[in-house]
């Protein structure tokens, strides 16, 4: 076993413990609200199952050899049942009774924008405001016009399955989705119709598609790439981490004319999108005090966020093993600001106030799952994905 593999095994082992830890936080927090249930016993039992899961997986793989048709049947059956459950949750849960406002923040933001108003002063059903960048509003248009913002998660899963099937063999897709579906953090996103994890999944899918069909083809169309990158960056600031890490090195390799086309198209499209929102701002005071940056940086110190957004540019240029360790580096860069913000809140307010009273939004801890799960397939479950 090479030293690099040993290092990857240790890093991904830590990532798996993180995966278990975050899901246990979700399970403990929300079972604590159910009368007659011992949240600690349930959480410990769940943690033990997840700790044993890699060994159970290897054991099952050695004893049960599924034929391709059987695996395909298992895949479609599990996916169909999951989609039925998601549709049920989307249409049966009274979202106005929820103490989470991601869905209504997106909805009131879209409504304000479509009605020619400044979206960042609109208040949702909990008197909160949206932190969505303009690109995320556009993504939300489809479920909004379909009549339910919660359909965003359903549409995201369908698209995710398509992209994963293009990129991974079926066995890896089944394992990827299995890890996602046993995650309380994922089901919380579905239950409250949150756009956070979905946003990161969209970026993952974009990168997997680029990698599948070779980035040099895309760089031959720099204008199109500039538009796509600008659009994704204008969904949520932190998505700059995986995008910069993936594209920076190749950007410096292309011709100057292609660089200029990419930058021009990206800046032009981004400026237009921002203008369509800012044109409705009533005055400078409103712009400075009601904007998405204030809310997106509320959970983590601004200095940590800035540093985490700068690092991927440098790492992309100097890291020779980037292609083999892309997912791991992405996860580490996501973890850097998020864990610091989490531990600061723990220090200031204690465990109960931070977790139970929501001094820290723990969905930020799970937002990196789209990039964490592929890294777990490499060594924890003995399944090695292709690059990036």
UniProtKB/TrEMBL annotation:
TM regions (residue ranges): 7-28, 40-59, 71-91, 136-164, 185-210, 222-248, 260-279, 299-318, 330-350, 362-381
Domain of life: Bacteria
Coiled coil: none
Keyword set includes Transmembrane helix: yes
Protein's UniProt keywords contain Transmembrane helix: yes
Keywords: Membrane, Transmembrane, Transmembrane helix
Protein name: Uncharacterized protein
Annotated source species: Psychroflexus maritimus
Lineage of the species this protein comes from: Bacteria, Pseudomonadati, Bacteroidota, Flavobacteriia, Flavobacteriales
């Amino acid at each position: 076993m090479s030293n690099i593999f040993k290092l990857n095994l240790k890093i991904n082992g830590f990532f798996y413990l993180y995966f278990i830890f975050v899901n246990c936080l979700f399970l403990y927090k929300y079972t604590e609200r159910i009368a007659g249930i011992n949240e600690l016993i349930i959480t410990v039992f769940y943690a033990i199952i997840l700790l044993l899961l890699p060994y159970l997986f290897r054991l099952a793989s050695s004893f049960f050899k599924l034929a391709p048709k059987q695996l395909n049947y298992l895949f479609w059956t599990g996916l169909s049942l999951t989609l039925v459950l998601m549709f049920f949750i989307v249409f049966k849960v009274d979202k106005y009774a929820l103490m989470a406002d991601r869905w209504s923040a997106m909805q009131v933001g879209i409504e304000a924008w479509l009605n020619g108003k400044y979206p960042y002063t609109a208040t949702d059903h909990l008197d909160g405001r949206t932190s969505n960048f303009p690109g995320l509003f556009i993504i939300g248009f489809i479920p909004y016009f379909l009549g339910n913002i919660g359909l965003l998660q359903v549409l995201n899963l369908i698209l995710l399955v398509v992209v994963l099937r293009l990129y991974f063999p079926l066995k890896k897709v089944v394992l990827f989705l299995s890890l996602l579906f046993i995650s309380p953090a994922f089901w919380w996103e579905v239950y409250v119709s949150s756009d956070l994890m979905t946003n990161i999944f969209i970026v993952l899918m974009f990168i997997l598609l680029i990698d599948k069909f070779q980035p040099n083809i895309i760089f031959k169309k720099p204008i199109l790439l500039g538009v796509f990158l600008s659009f994704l960056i204008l969904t949520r600031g932190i998505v700059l981490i995986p995008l910069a890490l993936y594209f920076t090195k190749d950007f410096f390799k292309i011709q100057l004319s292609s660089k200029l086309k990419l930058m021009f198209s990206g800046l032009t499209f981004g400026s237009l999108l921002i203008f369509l929102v800012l044109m409705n701002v009533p005055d400078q005071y409103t712009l400075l005090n009601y904007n998405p940056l204030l809310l997106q940086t509320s959970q983590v110190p601004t200095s940590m966020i800035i540093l985490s957004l700068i690092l991927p540019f440098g790492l992309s240029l100097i890291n020779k093993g980037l292609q083999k360790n892309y997912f791991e580096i992405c996860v580490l860069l996501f973890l850097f600001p998020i864990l610091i913000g989490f531990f600061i809140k723990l220090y200031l307010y204690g465990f109960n106030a931070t977790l139970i009273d929501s001094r820290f939004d723990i969905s930020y801890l799970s937002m990196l799952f789209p990039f964490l799960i592929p890294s777990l397939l490499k060594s924890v479950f003995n399944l090695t994905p292709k690059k990036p």
